[in-house]
Amino acid sequence: MSAVSLPPAPARPGRLRRLARTWVSPAFIDFWVSHVAPTWSLERPLARIVGRRQESHDAVTLLLAPNRHWRGFQPGQHLSLGAEVDGARISRSYSLSDVPRADGRLAVTVRHVPGGKLSTHLCHHARVGDVLELGLAFGEMTLPAAHAAPLLLLAAGSGITPLMAMVRALAAQGMPGLLTLVYAARTRTDLCFVDELRRLAAAHSNFNVHFALSRESASAEDESSGRIDAALLDAVAPGLAQRKVYACGPGGFVAHTRELLAAQVHSFQAEAFTPPPRVVDDTGDVQVTLAGSGRTLTVPRGMPLLDALEAQGLKPAHGCRMGICNTCACGKRSGTTRDLHTGDAIAEPVSALKLCVHSAASDLVIDL
Description:
Elements: H1 13-23, H2 26-33, E1 46-56, E2 59-66, E3 78-85, E4 88-95, E5 106-111, H3 117-125, E6 131-134, E7 151-156, H4 160-172, E8 179-185, H5 194-203, E9 207-213, E10 223-225, H6 230-236, E11 244-249, H7 251-261, E12 267-272, E13 285-290, E14 296-300, H8 305-311, E15 329-334, E16 337-339, E17 345-346, E18 351-354, E19 358-360, E20 364-366
Parallel strand pairs: 7-8, 7-11, 8-9, 9-10, 11-12, 13-20
Antiparallel strand pairs: 1-2, 1-6, 2-5, 3-4, 3-6, 13-14, 15-18, 15-20, 16-17, 16-19
């Protein structure tokens, strides 16, 4: 019997990507395939807006359908969203506000920040059908595998969004343990998810929600006037010593709740949506050399390196601008930097730094 010549096996997707990159850049391929289907790409996570819902007077929830490059997330995590605004590509970090869904869609709740280009675009101009760039999920403030300890969630402003994902995840499990959410806002119009939270509290006897309004009088049993304080927490969250606490909101709110509780609860974990005050005594200028291009820049000490590089016309990759997402992380070959969160000087060579929360304390060589 004569031999039969079989056709070669089809190339696997990974092999096709490697072959494609040999001849053309991924960006070139993405540009042309986007004319066929806007969310097609060689390797970039992209998502189409498939729904939008107003959550408060200044916040919207966007429902996104990601492409196959999206790798998933855990409730409590964040991601970077990117869009073109006024001819420039802008990326910022936002929280995922729902649990992972069977249909693969994502819910991201965005609060409008006055003067914020991307939040203004997403809240007022983005429409169903628009395509956004996605970063990979990040953040370590997630639920433990076992929910043995009673939980206390403390939210202010946009800090409700990752905690709402946690509440929804626990509700999907039947509220396996004691859970209290205290949600602070200036007025009722600033609150998101109120009706759903009240429905969940009515449906689950071990879930309690309380709204603290700093600029409005209380008018319901689950409301109080003023800031969150020790007396309020003692009243709505008994047994604090056994509680595992998650807090999320502006930097001042997180610092306040940490001071109230960190020494008297089972554990305290927090994320701030605004960076802490940066007070450094460094003055004068230093030289920063970019190893990739060989370019040397003069930048001021004490200024976040990301801000300093942007002031020189550079556009390093970045996301949260708070030291959480690691998008702006790069290597340092030599020199001393200062951690603007702690004030500590870091002189170790060949170390990593985050451009948004490190400044130059001496001449530097960095991997950009």
